[in-house]
Amino acid sequence: MSHCVLVYDIPDDRKRTQIADACLDYGLDRIQYSAFSGRLSRTHQKELMRRIRHILGRKAGNVQLFVICNDDWGRRQVIEQKG
Prior knowledge:
Elements: E1 2-9, H1 13-25, E2 29-32, E3 35-40, H2 42-56, E4 62-68, H3 70-74
Antiparallel strand pairs: 1-3, 1-4, 2-3
């Protein structure tokens, strides 16, 4: 299992919602409106991207999945304030 960050820019509201739901189905956590993070196996990374490609179809969009090694993940810096 690898740490992953998935970000997207999808203009179509319906497609954007479906892609967010797919990310949640794979156990990713929403970290921003159009960004998710979590741990995925290599197989699940491929499955999720295949599913997103299918959902997106011919609609415009940009989806990027970043795999981050444990060392780099451990060095990330986070500011999270709930108000």
